[in-house]
Fold these 2 entries.
Entry 1:
Amino acid sequence: MIEFLHVYKTYPGPVHALKNVELKIGKGEFVFLTGPSGAGKTTLFKMISAYDTATSGDVKVAGYNLQEIQDKQIPFFRRKIGVVFQDFKLLKDRTIFENVALPLLVRGDKAQSVQRRVYDVLEQVGLAHKHDQYPDFISGGEQQRTAIARAIIHQPGVLIADEPTGNLDPRLSEEIMDLLERVCSQGTTVFVATHDHEMVKRRKKRTLELKDGAIVGDTL
Amino acid sequence: MRPAAKNLALKLSTVIVATACFAVISTGLVLSKNFRKMITLWGESVQLTVYLSQDISASGTEHIQKILKSSAQVESVKYITQEKALGDFRTQLASYAPDLTQDDELLQLIPASLEVSLKSSVPAAEHLGILSGLASKVKNLEGVDEVSYGQEWVSKYSALVSAFEVVLNLLGLVILAASVFVMSNAIRASVNSRKDEIVVLEMIGATQSMVRKPFITEGALLGAMSSAMAVILSFMLYTLMKNILQGRLSFLQLSEHMSFLSIVGVIGFVICGTLLGAFGSYLCVRRVNDGWAGSQG
């Protein structure tokens, strides 16, 4: 589902953000990405979600070669992936229901099927009873669960999460990780960037370590 | 403040700023239209008067008339008899100086004259040259006592028209540029407040047109609403001004010549406002879609 072949990324300066990155993540795998700040984690995620391109090498995600993708194809590629941010990125003037429904509305689904699917997913993440609340009036853990619900509602092949527990306490972090594992068990490839080494150790999942733009460890 | 209320407050302030900008432009247009009209009216009163001597014969008068009419720029040459001149004098001065109008000896001094009007197509800047040319043609002819064309007034009028045109054009450009700047800033603030929405829409796979369309539609609606309200404001201001001119300043006799923008002008103004609003939004949205980079800020 995710494949990097000899990927280099250099920013003007020059700053070598990624150096000869080689990785392959299969369908339904759960993988952690660790590394200190500035190691290149965000650059890697930007490439996976087509917000940036490699200086050289090949990046393939969900059947798309992102080095060759045309601008007009990018929105359709993004409908095949889900993204979760540390700061949730919820629209504050919309209810939980409206936030979660967005990907289906963008895809042009009918109102009735949108409603059914949104309630199913909200049930899955334990937020059905808060569907009419606004993000500012629910807890951080609930906001992150809403963001995950929005990221999985269109059943993406790949879910990437950039520090999804960075703003949460340990108990809520465990809840979110449990939720991501459940998503993975349904066949979605889940790729999570995190600083929380303790949690990574406890979860016993494949872990990639990035340092100075190069992959220096893979527990595979 | 709740998100919806905050959003409404921002939209309301954008509408107010945009309305103020459009009101300045529409009021400027109304003022410009009426100033031009006044100047044209004043221009119509510019004429050459040839005062004839008491003993001029009918053929002598005809000869002078013929010379004046031979000029291509002359619209009409009107013969004012001594009786008519006396009548006009009495009518004009009856209320101000009744004693004067009874003085027969003084009235005998009022001569017959020829009033020469120029064609309306003659530019104001050329009035002075043409009138002085005509004056020098006839002033030495037999039977002509004096020639007057308000030399000082005409030269001032020509200078006023030229200056007015320049000032009006410059002022129009400055006001338009300032209004577009202020309005695009107001729209940009509105778009920036929804930057997160754009980032999220991009992230979930919205196409470029899906992201831009709501903003451009909102900009167009904002432009339409603001320009329509601006026209109403200008009309209120125009009515107020007209009432003042009809009341306290009626002696100027300006109010009867005043007019507001035509229906076509109003429709054109609102259409331009709508397009300007849509274009301003397009420019702002075009630059905001920086996707993931935006989310890192």
Entry 2:
Amino acid sequence: MIRTRLVAQRLAFLFLLGCVFFNYPLLSIFNQGGSLFGMPPLYAWLMGSWLVLIALLALVIEGMHD
Amino acid sequence: MLQVWVIVLASFLYLGVLFGIAWYADHRADHGRSLIANPVVYALSLGVYCTTWTFYGSVGRAAANGIGFLPIYLGPTLLFALAGFILYRMIRVAKANRITSIADFVASRYGKSQLLGGLVTVIAVVGVIPYIALQLKAVSNSFTILSSYPEIVMPASAGAVPLFQDSALYVAMILAAFTILFGTRHLDATERHEGMVAAIAVESIVKLVAFLAVGAFVVWGLHGGVADVFARAAEVPEVARRLTRADTSAAYGSWGTLIFLSLFASLLLPRQFQIAVVENVDVKHLNRAVWMFPLYLFLINLFVLPVALAGLLHFPAGTVDADTFVLTLPMAHQQEGLALFVFIGGLSAATGMVIVETIALSTMVCNDLVMPLLLRMRWLGLAEKADLSGLLLEIRRWAIAIILGLGYLYFRVAGEAYALVSIGLISFAAVAQFAPVVIGGLFWKGGTRDGALAGLAIGFVLWAYTLLLPSFAKSGWLPEGFIAHGLFGIELLRPQHLFGLTGLDEITHCLVWSLLANLGAYIGVSLVRVPNAREARQASLFIGGTDLSGHLAWSGSAGVADLLPLAGRFLGRERAEDAFMRHARSRGLNSVEELPGDARLVNFAENLLAGAIGSASARAMVSSVVSEEPLGLDEVMNILDEASQVRAYSRELEQKSLELTRATAELRQANERLRELDRMKDDFISTVTHELRTPLTSIRAFSEMLHEDPKTDLEQRSKFLGIIVSETVRLSRLINQILDLAKLESGRAEWTVNAVDVDEVIHEAADSLTALFAEKRVTLDLSGLDKGLTVMADRDRLMQVMVNLLSNALKFVPPDSGMVRVGADGSAQEVRVSVTDNGPGIHAADHEVIFDKFRQGSGGTDVLTDKPQGTGLGLPISRQIIEYFNGRLWVESVPGAGACFLFTLPRQAGDNGKKF
Amino acid sequence: MAHRILIVDDEPNIVISLEYLLKKEGFEVKVATDGDSALLQAAEFRPDLVLLDVMMPKKSGFEVCESLRADASLADLKIIMLTAKGRDTEITKGLALGANAYITKPFSTKDLVAQIKLLLT
């Protein structure tokens, strides 16, 4: 599947990016009251960054044939 | 109205549809038009990860602590980002080795160890049972709640319900029957279930749509959108608490732990392994799943928090179990249809999980636990049975029933004490114990069977002690004091604060201890010894690198006659024959009978069997046919070493034999030369003897005659004595010459090299022979000598040559008319001397012979008409001398026209060291 | 009647000694110094015994012996071979070719005379 080393490396980078997105200390920045786009900041951040990460995964994978 | 029969009918209808889909997919697969050979189906089927835990439990979790449900889905997202490194390899390895389960995977990786396969199976079964209990609890609860519609009544504690009125029991039984129908209709060599996968993919859609429907209803039906839900939640302090998390390191720690835990669980849970690895049709499908599966997870979690908040806002605290909000919110708003759909969605989540999980577990139990044990019991005579495929299916069916039974038992025993998610996490922690041996096995070649066994065993024990047993204790099946005061009241052994470790939640606590010990034991024990041959071979198969595969897999061989019936016993005769036929075709053969009984065939048969009964059992079965002792690494290395040594040795040998051939040829030559020399020496000695005896004969004869007859007259006497004297002189000369020649030939002669005046030497030699010439009245002509010719030579030796040549000439010229002429001239390089006579001359054939020792007058040669005087050593000695000074001595002669002996000497002696 | 002996040898001094010795013993002696003249003499002189040297130019003693034995008219002729090469092979060869005795040089005159007398009685 992931034949090119570059794609595998990009994915590994996204893995690390996800680790950063989904963990302390980034989480603590959003772990507060208030609202972001009508949502609690932590929820908004997690769902938002998660979606971004999925989009990036899709971009890397589906773009690998180009 | 949602009467019980409606719910039951809907449920069975749904299950029937699923079964129909499965049947159709199987049918399509049998005709080679796979329904599931599609990346989207693959990604959807991975959604089996989302069970009732997700469907009901996440909302409950969110209601309890807000966003805390999410790490369970972030972990798998991260895993799929690493798919290229982990899943891809696992799929490739599993396909190549016909891996049928995670137990098979581990067993195969560490040298096809039955013990290891069995241990993994036990851990998986024990570990996953709470998870199955969770499904039973969720389905039975949702059924109970839905069936009491329009009332919203929380189900009574399971323990309080009589066994046969417990809906969970019937749920378990129905699920068992359904799973048995699904998964064990036939036995496949690849252990793949196309129909099941198709059904699971459909279920994933059903539960997703159901959940999204509830979410949409809650967010937009009951509220004015997501922002409205959050805004209203923020207004209620009791609910607003869920919008943020405790900002402590422990909270972040357990958050991270859950991400990490779910990452492994989504890989190592038997059903995840089954779907992601075993059921994978094409490894390329993984590409799409890398983003599609996380997207699925994202979507199914999209409304979790809003629904949880809405539930908290709607129901007074403590009245409704938050785990049921998904169902009770529609019910509370009289949405019968939606409620039923939600129930079906929950049923989807549960059946999907239970079907795949129990099929995976039953395969493991059958292949890695029961069959190895049964095959070991020789008195059962299983190894000799003609067809075992029926038995295999029977074992799996029983395994499914028993696993669900155990799940129900756990539900009855401990189900009440925990929320859905907490039960699930116990299972997550159990399968996380596989992480070191599986991940390590994919990247580290040094792992051994012993290390894997040690790591798994200690990890499992610690998991059971810190997580499973407390779950029993909390349910009252073990004394409470066990948790509070530790085993035997030892504080350090408190299961949730082991060795005094505090400040962690129970899951993190369990993982810290069990995984640390697991990893430590796995690595530590593995390092005790180097992997043996089988482990090394499997490691190379799993990791790559030095390819030891194939060649060393089986050192023995077995024929089709043994292997086909063996495979037939487990797969059924027809399937086995088909497979063998395909194998034969792939090797360009027309029939099964033509297959050679080589290692390739044995490996093929083993792989084929591995699909049905697991790699470890397959190995055991095949080895019962192939009489071959397993190779130790040492032996393999020895063989390799030996081979290379033999190669080196044979190269050496080749060289040696080449040398030997050369040496032999040389020796033969030398030997021939020696024999020739020996013969020559023999001849020489014989000749010398003759030459010595001849004068001796005369001497003795005359001496005896004189001695015996003293009265011999004086004249006679004087004549005889004269003969004796001359013969004695001859004898002495002969002996001197022989000694001289020996000295020359052996190189022991002494040479005094000076500038020698050739003219002077010739004159001196001539002078010494003047008397003899005069006596025979032979003319010696020295007028042809150039003056002032010098050469570097030994004067005495040169003189010897001249005397020899002159006396030789004198010997053969006729008396009175004889004439010997000596000439000498020189060029810049050399001096040439000739001695010409007017004797009888020499035949061309004898021009060289005369330079041989004693050949001057030997019998059989027609050189000379008369017996010549002399020893026959003069010419050989002369030639030796001339050649010593790098000169040349030869004769030119025509019979009847005299002979001319010539020699040349270089002016500079050159390399005087040269001997001959 | 005195027995006739033919001496065949190419060494003049040996011939002299043998001639003197045998004449003194009362034999009628003739001399040949090579193989051809030996055969000639044998036919003319008709000796009772030939003292035959092996190593001679032109024709070796063996050849002469063979030729003598090939002549049926010389059937009674005794042949003693003389040789300075004392090798066993030559003794065997000589005897095989029909020599009656084989004497190695240098020989004892007494033994030679005894051998001759033995053969001629």
